[in-house]
Amino acid sequence: MRWRNGILVLFSLLFYAWGEPVMVLLLIWSTLVNYFCAIAIKRAASPKKKKLWFVVGVIVSLAGLFYFKYFGFFLSTVSSILSTPIAFAAPRLPIGISFYTFQILTYTIDVYRNKVPQQKSFWKLLLYVSCFPQLIAGPIVQYGDIYAALDRRETSLQDFVDGMRRFFIGLGKKVLLANTCGSFLLAVLPEGTSPQSVGGAWLSALLFSLQLYFDFSAYSDMAIGLGRVLGFSYKENFRYPYCSASPTDFWRRWHISLGSFFRDYVYIPLGGSRCSKARRILNLLIVWSLTGLWHGASWNFVLWGLYWFALLVIDKDLDMLWSKIPSIVRGVFTFLFAIIGWVIFYHTDISMVGAHLAAMFGGARRIDEQTVAALGQYALFLPVVCVAAMPILPPIKRLLARVPRAAELAGTIAAVLTGFASLLLLVQQSYNPFIYFRF
Amino acid sequence: MKNKISFYLLYGMLVLLGGLGVLLLIFGQKTPHPSYSENRMLSGFPKLSAETLKDGSFMTGIEDYLSDNMIERDEIVAKTEQILNRFSRKEARDPLAEQEELFQQVEALAGEAEESRTAQPTAAATPEQTASAVPEKATETPAAEPSASETGTPEPADGEKGLSAVPECRFTCIKQNGAEETIYIFPRKNIQRMIRVLNAYRAALPDDGHVFFAQPPFPGVAAFLQNGEYSGWDGALEDTINAFADDGVVAVSVQKILEKPLLNGEDLYFNTDHHWKPRAACYTANACLSAIGIDPKPYEAYAYLTYNDFYGSSASKPGYKSSHEPDTVDIMIPSTPVKGVRIYWNGTEEDAPMITSAHSYMAFLGGTLGPWRRFETGVDCGRHCLVIGDSFANVFLPYLTPYYETVHMTDVRQDYYDAGSARWTISEYIERNGIDDVYIVLSTASGVNTDYLIDSLLKYLGEKK
User: Fold this and answer.
1) CB-based contact (8 Å) between B93 and chain A?
2) Average pLDDT of chain B?
3) What is the pLDDT of residues A132-187, one digit of tens each?
């Protein structure tokens, strides 16, 4: 196990250094500080000292995130409030810093809460933080879910087969579906422009919703698949979110690991739902402001967080009324709410958000030629990608469960073919970043 | 384990992918080389040094190298395109036939004006011949130029015959040892089409109007002249266009304009962006203006806003990992107050910026905004021009503002323009706004070799709604 962990740490660090040759040191530093803070928490004689080391760990972790991600935004906001120019060259955001910072935090917080044992080996802690499948775009793995596997994990050929199949499916989702959605979106709504018609506005919003889902869930699939090959069992991060029955349900299905983090480490410590209504609303406001900010240092993300805050408060308060509506209607409304939310998320310029929403709800024309041309170009792709976002695989799997050997072979062949098709498209497309890398 | 075949299949796939990567690393072409099907340079093996490892450019270079040197890459790209097109509702079409139909429509619209233009040369022009012909044509006034009948040059029966002698042209890089490396091939059919487009635009202008054509190269090509391996560029596209196009059409060779400054180490292209810098655009605009007898201001004569932390379009993409330091860039501040407006399909207007505070390519005109923009310069000269271009024109346009009362702009690429949102055809727009000169500024990526753009330039010029 020592060798396995050592090799995995080495290659994980090389993997990160491939994308961040210098900033890999920040990751190691952050892990090192929290490693020693956890030791100090365990050895502290008094609760006061425990708390002190806990605060040091949290502050050091968040300081890096704040400096790289939010300091420029903070200064520009101060600058505009004071109407005084403040010169500051914002540093480039290290890849995956939001993800690994949260992972480190779960370790220090859980050690402080006595929920998990303090990790004696720095290398094992470094492996937890840097493990390459989920390092740069999640899922956010909580230390409590994984620490046992750092000491002991087993893998079988079946794990390898299942994991690699999941990996190739993820690769296909990214290259075949998400990237094509992105090209389709650019054909409808070129970068920096606002929609010219109602049709263009809704179609572009739909395409971004699908692109984001396939892009992010693809990365999660690849991470979960590779994790399984390596003997780690990562929790699911998406469960067909566009089939949700309510806004609350949506957030139980979308980026589940982020929702779990904010629930376990912010919402519940603030008092959760077991408090007065006003306090609950305040707690939700804090959580959703932070959720918005986590996605990026820009006001549109804050607005997006507040939009979901409003929807979730209304959802909870109108639960009795809402539950009387047929589920299919609720599902359609939830999907529309999500699409509108992604419009706010998409445009970092608030005026563009306004222009896009105005076009969706009363644009100058019903359809413009650019949208018609793009629809023509991607005519068959749109239904394919819409169906792919639905839960079609589970019933197929259930059906094929009657012939398990044939089903497994068919699944493998499909995964291999998807891998080949992705490879061919990757040769053609030279630029394939994951959207969530920027968070 | 239910089925070991699954294991062997997946394991085999992994071995295949890994093996392919190793083979490409060992046997792939190590030097940059052109892709004729994509009209771009494919990546060579990146330079390995402490510096390139530190800034990450070695890693991104390896990724580009592996992707660009894939075995049978051209075949893969072509086949993939074919497969993707099966998902499209587009019908199989004959672009040449459509083109011909469009030319006929536009020529019919141009009518008498087209026929009265000067006759074309009929003999095939060698690059040397055409090159020597350009300066004469550019500096002579139309009145001083002998007519076709005076020179005895037989007047072609129609434009097609006159253009049949147009040669294929190339854009080449000359190595220090004198060997030439072809970067772009411009097929004669495309040059013929572009000449006819330029003639059609010329016909839509007043008698003293001009149509300028400039095709800036990409930074990757420009970088060749600054890496010490190449001694210059060669190409005769613009000379050929000048030799065969009507009077009043002026193709300026951006290649020739920028060659010497690049060899002298001038900073003309961004590192973090795929566009040219204002200095390169200014040189090109000044070459156009000089060709019609205007003495333009030199680059240094303008006031500039300088940013030292300029990240261009490449850097603005999500997930982009810069392997370069930020660029330093000068944003030209017009010498007179310029009021810009964007004109929508319904005729409504809203303010459009000339410069913005963005420390990215959006600094120039706030990016590309369709369908029309008008910049009122406050210069009382009575002349008006229209710039038709891709994003390279955003840096170019400001250098025209001292010489025109209004500078208009449109971008006919499919992402920015459609007949419905444009409201007017380009010829209608020219007429409504009293346009004297038209500047067509398209990068090598969207110029002569882009069929649909040539189609669009022609279609939107004359199409009546």
Assistant:
1) no
2) 77
3) 888 887 789 999 998 898 888 888 888 999 999 999 999 999 998 998 888 888 88
DSSP-derived secondary structure for B37-93: TTTEEEP-PPPPSHHHHHSSHHHHHHHHHHHHT-TTHHHHHHHHHHHHHHTS-PPP-
Whether A255 is a known active-site residue: answer no
Task: Tell me which long-range contacts A182-190 makes (C-beta under 8 A, separation of at least 24).
Answer: A182/A211, A182/A215, A183/A378, A184/A374, A184/A377, A184/A378, A184/A381, A184/A382, A185/A211, A186/B415, A187/A370, A187/A373, A187/A374, A187/A377, A187/A378, A187/B414, A187/B415, A188/A370, A188/A371, A188/A374, A190/B368, A190/B415, A190/B416
pLDDT > 90 fraction of chain B, expressed in percent and rounded: 31
DSSP three-state, residue B351:
strand
Give the one of B13, B77, B87 whose C-beta lies nearest to A428's C-beta. Answer: B77
Task: In whole angstroms, give the CA distance from residue A96 to residue A100.
Answer: 6
pLDDT tops 50 at residue A215: yes
**Judging by beta carbons within 10 Å of its beta carbon (0-12, 13-18, 19+), is residue A364 exposed, middle or buried?**
middle
The two structure tokens encoding residue B209: 């109007």
Which positions ≥6 away from B153 have C-beta within 8 Å?
B119, B121, B122
Q: In chain B, what residues touch A22 (CB-CB under 8 Å)? A: 54
- Flag if B77 and A157 touch (Cβ within 8 Å): no
Which residue type sits at B403?
Y
Other CB atoms within a 10 A radius of the CB of residue A102 amount to 22
Q: How confident is the model at residue B429 (pLDDT cuts 50, 70, 90)?
A: very high
Cβ neighbours of A427 in B, within 8 Å: 67, 70, 73, 76-77, 80
Residue type, position B421, single letter: S
Given a cut of 60, whether residue A43 has pLDDT beyond it is yes
Rounded to two decimals, the pTM is 0.63
Q: Computed from CA positions of residues A9, A11, A12, A13, in that sequence, does the dihedral angle turn out positive or negative?
A: positive
Contacts of A251 (CB under 8 A, 6+ apart): A259, A308, A312
- The owner of tokens 């110029």 is B447
Ramachandran angles phi, psi of A305, nearest 5°: -65, -45
Q: What angle do the packed helices A369-377 and A198-230 form, to 10 degrees?
A: 40
Residue B274 touches partner A, C-beta closer than 8 Å? no
Q: How many CB atoms lie within 10 A of CB A81?
A: 8
Residue A415's alpha-carbon distances to A164, A382, A411, B87, B270, in angstroms, are: 8, 22, 6, 21, 41
pLDDT single digits (tens) B407-423: 999 988 866 776 667 77
Beta strands in B364-412 (DSSP E): 372-376, 384-389, 406-410
**CA gap A40, A49 in Å, rounded:** 8
Q: What is the pLDDT of residue B113?
A: 43
DSSP helix/strand/coil, A298: coil
B2 closest CB neighbour out of A92, A408, A419? A408
pLDDT band at B161 (very low <50, low <70, confident <90, very high): very low
